[in-house]
Structure formats: C-alpha cells, structure tokens
Amino acid sequence: MAHTLAGAALGEAGLKEKSGLGLATLMIAANIPDLDAIALVFGENLAFRRGLTHGPIGLLLLPVLLTLAMLGFDKWQARRGKRPPDRLPVRAGWLLLLAYIGALSHPALDFLNTYGVRCLAPFSDRWFYGDTLFIIDVWLWTVLAIGTFWAQRRRRGGVKRPRLPAQAAILILCAYIAGMGAFSAASESAARAAVAQAGYGTAELAIASPPPVDPFRRRLIYRTEDRRVGWGEVALGGPVVLDAPPRPDAMDDPRIAAAAAGSKPLRDFLFWSRVPFARFEGGEVIVSDARYTDRFASSNFTVRAPVSAADRE
User: Fold this and answer.
1) What is the mean pLDDT of residues 192-207?
2) Using the 8-state DSSP alphabet, how is residue 113 labeled?
3) Exposed, middle or buried by CB within 10 Å (0-12, 13-18, 19+), for 194?
4) What end-to-end distance do the CA atoms of the chain give, in Å?
5) Phi, psi angles (nearest 5°) of residue 116
C-alpha cells in the first residue's frame, strides 16, 4: 500500500504528465523490487528478502525491463485498436526515467523502518536501518492517499493547479519523516544515557523503534557491551523508562553455532536478526530478535533448533 501510494502521489504531483502510461509505470516501479517475495513460496524466509532486487543490480535492470514491458503493452493495445484515444504519447526516455524514480522510492521507504534493507546486495550483505517509521505507517498512508485522490478530483473537475494536493502531501510527508527521524535519534541517545545511569553499563547498541499509530512514542531496545539485552520506552518530552534489568544473552554459547550448522532456518534467522538473544529449553535453543519480541521471547519472530545430545552434555 505504501509503495503504491508513493508512486501514485509522484505521478499526480506532475510526473505522470511526462509520458503516456506514466502513472502506471510509477506505481508498478514503486513495487517492483518486491519481486523477491516470490522466493517465500519456495521455502525462503525473512533473510532472503530486501536483497538483490533492492540493490544496485536490481535497481539498474528492473526499470529497464519494466519500460520495455510498458512500451510493448502500448504497441499491443494500438495493434488491437484498444489504445485509449486520450492517452499521451508514450516517450521511452521519460518512461525509463519514471521507472527509475519509482523503483528508487522503494528502498528509500524500506530503509525507514527497523526491518532494514540490503541496499548494496549482492556486493555486500550489510543491512541498513533508518529506525524512523513503523513498518506499516497509517499516517504515511493517510497523507499520500488524501494528496493523491484530492489531486485526481481536482484534475477531473478542471480546477487550476490540480497537482497541488499531491505536491503538498509529498512535502508534508518529507517533514514528517524528518521529524520522526530526529525523534528516534534523540530517543536512542536518551536510552544510552538511561542505561548508563541505571548502572547497567554501556549500551553498544540502542534502537528506538516506532510503534504503530502513535508517532510520539518509541519502544527502546538496547544491548550492553557485555551482551545483555534490555527494553524500555520513551514518550516525546518524557523520561526514558527501562522495563527491567537487561537479561543475559547466550548468543556466544558454542551450542548455538553447532545448532545453526544443522538448521537452515536458524542460520537464516541469525543472518537477518539485528538483536538476537537466545535461551535453552530442554533439547532446543530458542533464538528471538529483540526488535520484535520482549524479554519473555513472546513473538512469532522466534526460531527453535535442536541441540545435539553431545552438545547438551
């Protein structure tokens, strides 16, 4: 939804007037890096996503393929006599540029949440995180939807400057993202200070995770230098509240590496996870990611893998 609305808003802001099929190209291009989701059907998981199709090679080639497809579609409609008479001339150069703009908007938005994006894949598997917006941001949807549909209505009504609502929506959204990013950065600094003040040591990592709906609050996740993991919360203008002393982390236990060697789901999860923490229960190791769980490891973002009898001994 977010990517589609971003492409639509860019089109209604004036870009769709550059070429026939401009709006459709922007909206499709804004989603096209998510072609990698097809791999989920074949057994891949979270670790595979937001990689190759979000990196330089994918972003270079996919817009070209989309442009060729749109040009072919326009010619196919013309041959069948189905081409809309009011469609603007399709200009290949502009269509390609719009495809690149739409495609590049995708990793830009993906970067803004805590899930991350591998925008250098396949040259690097490093994950980049913006920690700015919740992965489903209803305010982003609302602003883009209002701007897009209001611009369309003005255009149909013959109002002067029909692009204005879409352009305003994009500017408002940029200001919103900047404000959310500044709040997250300030919250992370405050979390580090609170951890030190509480006597828990130095936080080598602090994440201010935006919750759904409420832009004035942050869920805090931190990891200390001695690899303990903790959680907290902060509201805009309020103090940092830490949930409890950070819990010990067993990620350095050699049994985890042994379990991962025989478990692809665990290997993939560890590749994707940003703040993994583990515990042992019976004959299993249970690994969670602190971004999407709590100190009781109650989350779907958890992987279990068996520990061999020899390793248990």
Assistant:
1) 96
2) S
3) buried
4) 50
5) 95, 170
What secondary structure letter does DSSP report for 144?
A: H
Q: In this structure, which amino acid lies at residue 36? A: D
The pLDDT tens digits of the residues spanning 54-104 come to 999 999 999 999 999 999 999 999 999 999 999 999 999 999 999 999 999
Question: Residue 187 contacts by C-beta under 8 Å, 6 or more apart in sequence?
Answer: 208, 218, 220, 234, 240
Band (300; pLDDT cuts 50, 70, 90): low
C-alpha to C-alpha distance for 50 and 56, rounded to whole angstroms: 12
CB count in 10 Å sphere of residue 108 = 14
Out of 70-84, 136-150, 242-256, 299-313, least confident range: 299-313
User: What is the Cα–Cα distance from 303 to 269, expressed in whole angstroms?
Assistant: 7
Q: How far is 283 from 301, CA to CA, in rounded Å?
A: 20
Quickly tell me which residue has 């989701």 as its tokens. 37
